[in-house]
Amino acid sequence: MAEEIERKFLVLNDSWRKQVYRQSVMRQGYLSGSDKSSIRVRLADDKAYLNIKSATLGVYRKEYEYEIPVADANELLDQLCQGPLIEKTRYYVKYADHVWEVDVFAGDNAGLIVAEVELAHEQEEFAVPQWAGDEVSGDTRYYNVCLVKHPYKDWSTT
Length: 158
Known about the structure:
- Helices cover 10% and strands 49% of the residues.
- By secondary structure, it is mainly beta.
C-alpha cells in the first residue's frame, strides 16, 4: 500500500532560494475529486504521471502514482481535466535531514507559495527552516485539488 506523510507550511520570505539545488516546472489537473479520492494528471518537465490520492484530512494519505506517456498527459490536461489547471514551479531545498519542496504557483494561484516536507512516519521529528511560517497541513484550501475549485486569486483578503 502506497502512502504519503507530508507536512505543509506557508513560506515567509525568499531566503530559501539560495539553497535550491533543483527545480521543475509543473502543470497539473484533476480528472476527478470526491470526498474519498482525487485523480490527478501531472506534467513535470519531460515526464508525466497519473496520481490517485485519498482525500483524507491531515498529514497521512494513501497515494498511488504511475508514469504515463507525455502525449497522453497533454491530451488529458487539455481536454478532460477540470479547470483552471494548476501551474507551478517546484523548487527542491535541502534543510537539515530533509528535502523541502517549495511550490511557487502561477496562473490563477499566483502569489501562493507553500513548502512541503515528506516524512517517514507521522511522529517523525524534523527541523523547520526559518523561512517556513504557519503550518497549513490540515487546511484544505491549500490542497491542490481545492485550488482548482477555489483558486488563490479568489480568496478574500478580509
